[in-house]
Specification:
Elements lengths: L3 H6 L4 E2 L19 E8 L5 E7 L7 H10 L5 E8 L4 H11 L4 E5 L3 E2 L5 H11 L3 E8 L7 H9 L12 E2 L7 E5 H6 L11 H11 L3 E12 L5 H21 L20 H17 L3 H20 L13
Parallel strand pairs: 3-4, 3-5, 7-10
Antiparallel strand pairs: 1-2, 2-4, 5-9, 6-10, 7-9, 8-10
Helix pairs in contact: 8-10, 9-10
Amino acid sequence: MNSIVDLFGNCRWKPATGIQRAFVKHPARDESPGSYGIIKCGDERIRMSVVIPTSDADRGGYFRLLLDQINRQTYPFFELIIVKGDSRQGRAINIGAALARGKYLLTLDDDTSLPDVETFQKMADVLEKYPTIGIAGGNNIVPEQAAFFVRRAMEEIPRRSWEPVDTITESDLAEHPCMVMRTKEFKAAGGENELILRGLDPYLREQFRKIGKRVVVVPGVMYHHLPPDSLAKLLRQFYRNGSQASYTRRNYPQWIIETPAVHGQFNSNVSFSRRILRFPVLLFKALIALKFIWFLGESAYGAGYFRNMLFERPLKGDHSQKKD
């Protein structure tokens, strides 16, 4: 049998324009400029659809490493749907969901790394066993072989890594880089929000909670969501994230949702004034803790946020300033 890397090399890409997504509650107003490819893997009895949105199907080499890791998964009942070239991640995932044949929908980022060959099996087992769970996420841990900068970044920056849980835990740390849902419930929740460029994870988690489903992190599922491998690249990423967050606050303030760095219950609605006031406190905490990567990253985030707020700059991927 050909490897997934080989199948990807021979993949026939089709335009994503025109893919119907009637289940989407907040669709984008323009057509997707991207394309998609479907790779049939292993057994024909598809139970899981693995969706990966990607800008260029490369991500500095991370993407092909991920394909190789997917190729080693012991779970045979899955298909791989790659949506390439759509800057709206939410729309790309919705396109993948519209094409999906699996009962389960598993999302990965193109810079995710899967060290465990049983990841897919374990995530399918969780949803099979626990019908009350709507979203099940894994544990983002630091790779043993991580380069010095990558390790420091993952250890310093909140939500970039955490101590793995030993029981199923209610958590806001279930994230797109490695999480699984039932396809039917994903559609019932209205799918991804295609209008916002930042805050997709908290939006989707809240929609699942609204339909009465639990959002959890499960034991035994490990992954790596790798940060950029240099300070310059990391600061550009933080700056972009700050700009996108500012855009979302200005145009869609109803979808600004808190993102705690720990498991458990939390207040999802935090006022804008409180967010602004606590920002210098976060910078000070990072500085006194000698977490200089976190400090510089947050500074770049703040620069992107406030520049976009002051000058109301249109962002890449945004084709409408009209509010929903």
